[in-house]
Amino acid sequence: MKKILSIAFLTLLSMGVMSGQTKVTGKVTDLNTNDPVSYASVAVKGYATAGTFTDDNGNYTINMPEGSITLVFSFVGYKTQEVVVNNRSIIDVSLEPDVAQIEESFVVAYGTATKGKYSGAAAVIKADKIQDIPVVSFEQALAGNTPGIQINSTSGLPGSFPEIRIRGAGSMNAGNNPLYIIDGVPAISGDLSTSNTTTSSMNFLNPSDIESITILKDAAAASLYGSRAANGVVLVTTKKGKAGKTQFRFKADLGLSDFAFNNFPLASDAETEMLHREAWTNYGSLQLGYSGTQLEQYVNGQVETYYPAKQSEYVYVDWRKELFRTAVTQNYELSVSGGDEKTRFFLSGSYNKNEAVTKGRFFDRISANMNFEHKVNKYIAVGVGLQYSYTDQAGHQEGGAAYDNPWWAAMSFLTWRWPAYNADGTYWTGFDGGKNAYDLNNSSYRNPLLNNATQITTSAQTRLLMKPWLEVDIIDGLKAKTIFGYDGIYIHDKFGWLPDHANGHAYGGDGFLAVKKHEYSKLVSSSTLNYSKTFASDHNLSAMIGWEAEKQSNYHDYMGKNDMASTKVISMNMLANVYGDVTDYDDESALLSFISSVNYNYKSKYFFAATYRRDGSSRLSEKNRWGDFWSISGSWRIKSEDFMQNINWLDDLRLRISHGISGTLPTYWYYYKPFYSFEAYGNKGSFYISTAHNPELTWEKNASTNIAVESRLFNRFSFSVDFYIKQTKDLLMSGTTSAISGFTSYLRNIGSMKNTGVEIDVNVDIIKTKDITWTAGINWTANKNRITEMSYEGEELLESVYILKKGYSYNQYYTREYAGVNPETGQVQFYRNNKLPDGTYNKEIVNSASNASNILIEGKTGDPKGYGGITTGFRYKNLSVSMLFNYMYGHYVFDQAQDQMSVDGGTSYYRSISKEQLRRWQKPGDITDVPRRMPGDRAGYYNSSRMLMKGDFIRLKSITVSYNLPKNWTKKVSLEDVRIYAAGNNIFAVTDLYFDPELSSSRGFVNRQTPPIRTISFGVELSF
Description:
CATH class of the domain at 15-100: Mainly Beta
CATH topology of the domain at 15-100: Immunoglobulin-like
Shape: globular
Radius of gyration: 32 Å
Number of helices: 9
Strand content: over 45%
CATH superfamily of the domain at 15-100: Carboxypeptidase-like, regulatory domain
Number of strands: 55
């Protein structure tokens, strides 16, 4: 902002330059790097109407008034320099960076701040950190960039929704995703996935349109967003125009994608047959008492049934190659920006085409971004921002839906002996001869090639985010601003089966098609009054008051029809009959808020800030509708003290502290009042109360305390350490109630949870010269989560393989305790773990899972003991290389996939077999954790701690290599700049796991979803 104001001011001054002038030209550069300083101020000392600024290359020309002798050169972040002209016509100047000023401003809640004057915990990620990384959504590029942020993949399909946790999970039922603010407007966010696609609400933004991302982590930073800020806030600032000549930028890249890891390696064809034979040999000899020829005939018969020899009338394939591919991604962008002292603009358009690694699946996006600002006069400024996108994607269900999840089908039942085609090229649909294990028409396991070809799974999304604003300078230091935001999303889903699909007759006719429409809209109006003043030169005060109103509406409708008249056009008009219920419903939620803040500092040495917000929400009853959220914070710039001035090696030292309250609204919009369901009763419509209501519901409240130290040494080494406590109370949980009421539970505010942690961020400028720069950094976070209160003393709630219990993590595992393998017999073993009268547990070893009780597995949770990132950037003249590693350790992941692929022959004998089974027990004395293979022995199938694995990993998350062609080359073809680059994402990982370490959810659960992908792209960027 200072740069823009300086340019505008000096431009106006230059219009009134006096007559009788002497022309002076020159170039302004950076003293350390020799890079040109664009738009630096060049003024004539003593002449208020004479001045200019440098161009993009640092060059300037100024007409000196008669009698003038001194030029003043200045720019934000540099020390001002005065130069006596002495009748010279060429003056080149090198400006020295000013450490005290170089702290650039960044976006915070309802305004901007500079790092040295900000008391909250906020992390800023600039555009250059993410602009080249080949990802669909910017969220995927955040992992490892800053401490306190944990990101997990939910699917490797492009455009999918990632789980983001800022300083741990703070809620059980109200959600843990952060609030997203785009250019000051709260945007619709969260998981927009439907039954056949996985979709992030943020995939509509082209990452190249983003200027910066600020992540607000503590109450001082986030509490101005009140009842929605407990999980942190992600502020996205899109690119805007700058004063200067109009600049065009074109960028294009082409990438190749494949799975980032060799997930779940399978035994080879020969190994699989060998493992089948071994299993049936064990069963025949140990269970049936067969031997000799009888045993051989028995084994041959069983193997032929469950792993039959290949037959000439069928075509067999490598299913991974048949279902998956090296996918191609394409990205094309064009932008134009520029302006003058009154008007600035930025326009961009992009086309992004992503094939999924799964054949037939894709994600395409067309997007546009516009930011326009105009200074009407010296008092009034107006502007508008707009983002538009259209996305079209085809996906599939994730998890254990084998008939619709190609990834899981390939991992589970699609063995080396499972045909793909008949000899005539038609799809294979099942064996003859009554081999039911392979009879696709009588089982849930179907040829996915036929499924994919005869299934409709598409989702089209249109989104418009519009943000007009008005700003008025009322008097010196007093400014008013109003912003109006509209965010609208329209999603059109189609899901169905053609008549040839295995499910084509499942809905009473030939083929089925369902159409779903989802409409989301949010209106936001925000008005603020800001005052800023300096008193007696040492006292700096700023204050803000305002109000904000928000209304969100959701609408959904659904219709299903069967009996397709034609498959040439996939339209509801081509189906004869409505099948099932035709439904539609809409929801509305409103929020009204008062906001205020005050900031004070004395001599830029002692800083104090306070915020207060009062929210009223329609999601709560009138009794509890209003809530108060606030923060207080302060910081001390120790380096500014007189006693620190002689410590030359210490550039900066700060202490900051904050405390405050933020909140989380109920995810369910109407649970404070009776919830009705409607259905037919005889021939009449009827309704009934289907959910117990609770008028006492209120916000979950999060109390956050943060203490931090920041420092910079030797003008090249900087670090920060944050200690935090985040305590959530009034957790929204399901509490029990008497069945007499007609319900067994209802939602209420009970329980509490605490996150405590430390964040460390260290960065160093290893080399700083004109031609060479080399920087490196590391960040680390340790977060400890504990449930501190349940609804009553001693309560334990079970969720799948987790237990919710006071004193333990939200992600604490609860399952059978695996005791390994009996080295003499090869049998699987468990600890009985029934509770004894003295409160201890019976550690007797049993061979049957049914005789073993579930138990809290001490010391094993889904929480990492530490996570973070390692960065390094190197530049030699025009060549640049940057790398980012992310890592995580100390946590356990629960491999749900293992119960299908590593079941020791116990169930579903016709499934694929994991290569892990090659480590099985084979003879007395073998020491291994994989039991003998024995059909019918289901002990290994049941959930147990056998499925818990250490999830430690380190991954080269991203790398970018770029080269800027020399200017004397590009000017010959009338181009200002040409940059060529190669970039990659998810390059490689080091881990002991046999699947991608980032495949698990934030709780550590691996549920057969499509794994993350690796993308390598090559591109070019032109500026002219």
